[in-house]
Specification:
globular, about 450 residues, two-stranded antiparallel sheet, mainly alpha, Growth Hormone, Chain: A, 16 helices, disordered N terminus
Amino acid sequence: MTTQSPSAVDENNRIPRGLALGWALGSFAMSAMFQANTVLLLSYLVNFVGIAAVTAGLLLGLSKVYDAAVDPFIGLASDRTVSRWGRRRPFLLVGGLTSGLSFWLLFSIPMLEDVTMRTAIVAFALLANATGYAMFVIPYIAMPAEMTDSARERAYLMSLRVAAVALGQIIGSFVGPQLIAAYGGGMAGHRVMATVVAIIVVATCIVCFFATKNARYTTRVIDHGYSLAQQFRLAAGNQPFVCLMGMKTLNLFGLAVNTAITPFLFIQLLKSSYLVMSYFFLIKSVATFVTQPFWLKMSITFGKKKTFYVASAVYGMANLSFLTASAAEPGWAIHARGIVLGITAGGLLLVGQTLLPETIAYDFKRTGLRREGIFAGVYTTVEKASFALAAAATGIVLGSMGYIESTGRDVVQSESALLAIYICIAAPAVLQLFSALILSRYRLDDAPATEARA
């Protein structure tokens, strides 16, 4: 059932480091684009394109709903694909190209007088970007379950992925705002940022495609004839996977709200700028990157659940501390929060990522079916649904409490609009608590820790 290149794994079932790093590059590309969208897009649409906050939030939410709806079909298609490049890799190439081009369009909206036309162009670009992202990410995250049978190697792969995500976040949340500021802000600055990030996304995805040519993959998969609905019902029987999905929903919803509200926090409450905010995101991303070996060691030594509990508690407290932040607060205090949030976010992301291949491996042992794409599709559906609800909720809360949109001019916001920002700041900490409670129901053995003890 499997075909394996001679260099795919060594005699100890370890993946060559070059192959592992090449695979992780895909996360760098998608993270750069995703982070730029999450940090900048809502603010860009409301404050520069001139779309109402509620409308912009709904557009972002609906695009993610569409994205989530097509995810399972893309996962199923990648399961059934037969090509000389394997089941997954053709999607990496097409998805990467589509993602980069549509991202450029999204931040290069022509300023037509008709707001309806501007909104329609935004909607088209959002759908195209969501399609490209889904085509790349779903087959991509299904690959580790096929690349090795070692739980520790899969954990290592996922730690590289989180590190690559952190580096990508630097591009999306630090380099991006720096470019916007350097080129005068406004529409022109956003267009330059979009061009640079799009080039990075396309080039990196192409490198990832060629770097994974020796990755082990499954071939000649037996088609058991299950419909999509039947496969979902079978997946629902995987209790650890269902538990993981519940935890990820709340966890990612909170992280997405936190990221989307940050530009409003810096501009409206701290009376700062995109430039200062970019350094906050840089510090946060670097902290996530450099602490990955620590979190990997923690998860192997003490188990993923305990690691997640510690990271959740500290993350929640650091996030709630922003409720006391003001324009008079010194810069070092703001950036100190960024360090703590970056460190703990790294732990949260690592645990969520490493649990996925373990639940997929459990499904194979339980059923004998190779359904990596289905589980990857459901996983990304939950991810995108969480971000969809978060984007829509953030925009709706801001709009319903009186936040005023603009096309780059200074606008004085009401007290209720500022209160809406504080509400969005506090929500992630509460959601993080509930995500930890859900994870307490996870009953699968901690395979990497078991291997380490053995």
